[in-house]
Amino acid sequence: MRCILLRHGIAVEWHDWNGEDRTRPLTEEGIEKTTKVAKGLHQLDVRPAHILCSPFLRTQQTAKIAKDILGISEDAQLSPELLSEASPEHFVKFLGSFSRDATLLCVGHEPHLGSTAGVMVCGQPTPGMSMKKAGACSIYFEGRPRAGAGVLEWWLPPAHLRQLGRG
């Protein structure tokens, strides 16, 4: 299994938003930069069979941008396992419900994604593994996903993904 973790794009700041946090949208800049990031993922030949995202609007928007650019026919599956307060260990177990040869694009939040990457690769959350907005990484599992069994294939900040998307 290959799991691509993607943090949502730049969203309206919480102190500038009058609604619930779950309804905070991407900014125009966030949409533009996330589109370029998705083009970079396309250049890396990222071809997920499934897209999972947290139920928050900004992750759904990020997932939709990726879906359109990567040419994925399936709509994103809303996954509470990708919420900030969710257990990274539980998320890794949840991945076991998918085919062993699947490639998944998982759109979520920090600090959850960084902690999840730590659990996947090191067996526990690891300090320093945090993703910038619209940053991504690829973690490969031989067989079923389990804590500490993942192999980090790449970890790219959004600026590098955007640069790839220009090519």
UniProtKB/TrEMBL annotation:
Top-level taxon of the source organism: Bacteria
InterPro entries with a match to the protein in the record: His_Pase_superF_clade-1, His_PPase_superfam
Gene3D superfamilies, per the entry: Phosphoglycerate mutase-like
Bilayer-crossing regions: none
Protein name: Histidine phosphatase family protein
Lineage start: Bacteria, Pseudomonadati, Nitrospirota, Nitrospiria, Nitrospirales
